[in-house]
């Protein structure tokens, strides 16, 4: 897939129609997620309500529902799977904000900025545990797969944390990390939704690979937002990759292809935090073609994911899964075009 000026638009009638049909399911999922706060002691329930009531994009629950509809239909177990996956995602966000020192999440003060590191660690741990408690409603094979997926996500985070400030990090190592820490939580909802419908292993695994590719592309997009987004629009603290020493794909590409001046400036910024030279890095990323190269890698993941859907019979649900990728592709292209004036 090559970057072009006009990405093929998703068909709004199909996408809006399907998400409209799923509105009641998504509302039930949101209510059930919030209800989980009542499972905790009254003295701490308000902290869990704060996290669980935050308004996110709910991409993962949507992927559960679309994959379920595309592989046989939505059952009660799919709704609980969506609750589990979203709660695990929320737990990872709490822990991410601790690791990154982020002060804002989804337009509100982060948990760690409100209650400190100690409480935030315990709160994130408790969300993981409560998610697995809800998961006990499901088939043992699904429980095992969810637990295994959480291990993969955490392992990816550990790998990334160990490689902070490590300029020897290779592109393939970075891609492995994001497929683990982000792609896995996109793979699980797609693959397990199909498995709950007793779909063939070929269909289930193809949906899983679609989800993992989509999630990997999304992580690259998020890395670029950390460099070029605005906190007002994104709703979270930006620039944390720099301060935390995370070598994201655009930074790796720039370091690998840049002059000695660029390399030296990059190392200084990562060692000392954001400085007056940060504007130079943004300029170089655009001028040297790094942003386009990075977004091309993300688009390649989207193409790979779309190809995985070939095994599914044609349906509105399959088209809507394609549309999710197209919508992300449009965001990627908008980001590139918005920086072309630098």
Largest sheet: 2 strands, antiparallel
Order of helices and strands: HHHHHEEHHHHHHHHHHH
User: Quick one: how many beta strands?
Assistant: 2
Low-confidence stretches: 1-5
Supply the helix-strand structural class.
mainly alpha
User: What Rg, in angstroms, do the CA atoms define?
Assistant: 20 Å
| Tally of distinct domains | 1
Instruction: Note the beta-strand portion.
Output: under 5%
Helix content: over 70%
The N- to C-terminal Cα distance equals 25 Å
Strand order of the largest sheet: 1-2
Query: Helix count?
Result: 16
Return the CATH architecture: Orthogonal Bundle
| Residue-averaged pLDDT | 87
Could you name the CATH class? Mainly Alpha
CATH superfamily: Farnesyl Diphosphate Synthase
CATH fold type: Farnesyl Diphosphate Synthase
């Amino acid at each position: 897939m090559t970057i072009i000026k006009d990405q093929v638009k998703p068909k709004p009638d199909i996408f809006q129609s399907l998400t409209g049909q799923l509105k009641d399911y998504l509302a039930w999922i949101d209510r059930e997620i919030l209800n989980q706060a009542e499972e905790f002691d009254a003295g701490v329930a308000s902290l869990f309500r704060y996290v669980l009531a935050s308004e996110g994009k709910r991409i993962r629950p949507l992927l559960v529902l679309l994959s379920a509809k595309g592989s046989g239909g939505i059952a009660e177990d799919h709704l609980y799977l969506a609750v589990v996956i979203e709660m695990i995602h929320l737990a990872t966000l709490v822990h991410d904000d601790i690791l990154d020192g982020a002060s804002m999440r989804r337009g509100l003060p982060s948990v760690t900025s409100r209650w400190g590191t100690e409480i935030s660690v315990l709160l994130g741990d408790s969300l993981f545990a409560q998610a697995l408690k809800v998961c006990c409603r499901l088939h043992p094979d699904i429980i095992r797969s969810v637990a295994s997926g959480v291990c993969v996500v955490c392992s990816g985070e550990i790998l990334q944390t160990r490689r902070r400030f490590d300029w020897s990090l290779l592109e393939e190592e970075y891609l492995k990390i994001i497929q683990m820490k982000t792609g896995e939580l996109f793979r699980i909802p797609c693959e397990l939704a199909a498995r709950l419908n007793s779909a063939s292993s070929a269909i289930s695994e193809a949906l899983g690979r679609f989800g993992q590719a989509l999630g990997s592309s999304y992580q690259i997009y998020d890395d670029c937002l950390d460099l070029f987004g605005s906190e007002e629009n994104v709703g979270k603290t930006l620039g944390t990759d720099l301060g935390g020493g995370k070598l994201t794909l655009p930074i790796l590409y720039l370091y690998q292809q840049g002059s000695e001046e660029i390399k030296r400036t990059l190392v200084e910024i990562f060692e000392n935090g954001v400085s007056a030279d940060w504007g130079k890095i943004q300029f170089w990323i655009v001028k040297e073609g790094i942003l386009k190269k990075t977004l091309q890698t993300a688009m390649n993941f989207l193409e790979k994911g779309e190809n995985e859907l070939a095994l599914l019979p044609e349906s509105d649900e399959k088209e809507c899964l394609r549309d999710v990728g197209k919508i992300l592709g449009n965001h990627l292209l908008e980001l590139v075009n918005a920086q072309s004036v630098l």
